[in-house]
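User: I'm preparing a small set of examples for a lab meeting where we compare how different chains pack in three dimensions. I only have the primary sequence for this one, and I'd like the structure in token form so I can line it up with the others. Please keep the answer compact; I'll paste it straight into my notes.
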Amino acid sequence: MSDMPNCPSCGSEYTYDDGVNYVCPECAHEWSKDAAPEEAESGKVFKDAHGNVLQDGDTVTVIKDLKVKGSSSVVKVGTKVKNIRLVEGDHDIDCKIDGIGPMKLKSEFVKKA
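Assistant: Understood. Below is the structure token output for the 113-residue chain.
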């Protein structure tokens, strides 16, 4: 088993060969034999409205007035949002906005500050 790569997800050394893929029995992660280890764990790249790459902990600025669903509040243009967290889904930014509270935003409506 020494010629098998460790799992890129959990680092387990107990991976096995399953045809065209490697499989980790501990976390059930599967990856292609052709994929480089960096590509296997890279995942989705989140970009702002101007194409800048976003990362967890970044500060962003809202570029459009956004209505808050279920409320009469509005997030105004220029509102700074600190310490964002990136998540999978339709609204890919999880954050807390001062004066409004926890929210989910789409990355297409923000720019990196």
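A couple of notes for your slides: The chain has a mean pLDDT of 87. The first strand starts at residue 16 and ends at 18.

User: Perfect, thanks.
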